[in-house]
Amino acid sequence: MTKTDTAESPAVTEGMVFVPGGTFTMGSEAFYPEEAPLRRVSLDGFWIDETPVTNRQFARFVEATGYTTVAEIAPDPKDYPGMLPGMAKAGSLVFRKTATPVDTSNPANWWHFEFGTDWRHPLGPDADIAALDLWDHPVVQIAYADAEAYAKWAGKDLPTEAEYEYAARGGLDGKEYAWGDELAPGGAMLANYWQGLFPFANQCLDGWERTSPVKTFPANGYGLYDLIGNTWEWTRDWWSEKPEVAKKKAGGSCCTLSNPRGGKLKTSFDPAQPGVRIGRKVLKGGSHLCAANYCQRYRPAARHPEMVDTATSHIGFRCVVRAGA
After folding, report:
1. pLDDT tens digits, one per residue of 110-123
2. How many whole angstroms separate alpha carbon 177 and alpha carbon 307?
3. CA 138, CA 190: separation in Å to the nearest integer?
4. Where are the beta strands (DSSP E) in the chain?
């Protein structure tokens, strides 16, 4: 690591790890179509938070700024055509395990919009993070604007999709999981995800029904925690169904993408909801709700679109500082 690599002030990069620049194979062709094709990507070095931002850290931000999160503000019916009467109240989405098997094509079977739910009350209004002892768990119920506001306050930024995936791989190129090609090598639980049949039977072999404290599971090759499982994390990239691919050079030789920045706002809208013009960003990392029978996205290549106004009990974030920025 050169002197230039560590030029950022200690106050900004405290609790962060420097990931040297390099080239890696991004994506996967073994799981979901939106992860393909495989492509070579080159990145400059960057600092990234060692863990997701915790409730303790987010509380300091709110105390210092008086910030109000998206989930704490009642939605404007004009932004949501067809909103049912009585729904224009502050709240957010909470996962509720079902009692029996249900149709897994309908997320409404387990996601419930509950008034009074926010980052302080991530599982509903009846208990806050202090009562639930969640201070060192990742902050959740965070919409994109909330993550962006925290990053700006901290003098940081949100990672791109490529930066997140590169960091999550921990130096292992071409592997399906952050630790190799087996989900649970020798039965070892190496991340917080759902073991059993989602959404009704969680065996909790990893010890956790919902989120876990940061650093509960082993660090990856870069010394980073929870980039796989626990919570999904926001990236700054707009969603695109097909990731950008580098064009071949003259003569047919292959080439690499350099520091890609994702899609465009206008192409990120959900085609299934043409009346809702709310952009979608890329989430990375999977969460404690990813399961073998439903969502095998506890992998570096996994990606998922999410509307920027959405906050749930399984979405958090972490920040980066780019070398030389």
Report:
1. 999 999 999 999 99
2. 26
3. 17
4. 16-19, 22-26, 39-43, 46-49, 91-95, 111-115, 196-197, 201-202, 232-238, 257-258, 280-284, 303-307, 315-316, 320-322
Contacts 24+ apart (CB under 8 A), 104-112: 104/198, 104/199, 104/293, 104/294, 109/199, 110/199, 111/312
- In terms of C-beta density within 10 A (0-12 exposed, 13-18 middle, 19 or more buried), how is residue 246 classed? middle
| CA proximity to 96, closest of 314, 317, 316 | 314
Q: Give the pair of three-digit tokens for residue 239.
A: 């969603």
Q: Rounded distance, CA 302 to CA 287, Å? A: 11
What's the CA gap between 289 and 292, in Å, rounded? 10
Name the one residue in this structure whose structure tokens are 């919902």.
210
Q: Torsions phi, psi of 247, nearest 5?
A: -80, 145
* Tens digits of residue pLDDT in 286-306: 999 999 999 999 999 999 999
Its pTM stands at: 0.94
Q: How many CB atoms lie within 10 A of CB 150?
A: 25
β-strand pairing of 280-284 with 303-307: antiparallel
Domains plus CATH for the chain?
1-52+147-325 (3.90.1580.10)
- Which residues share a beta bridge with 233? 284, 316
Q: Quick: pLDDT tens for 255-264.
A: 899 999 989 9
Residue with structure tokens 């065996």? 203
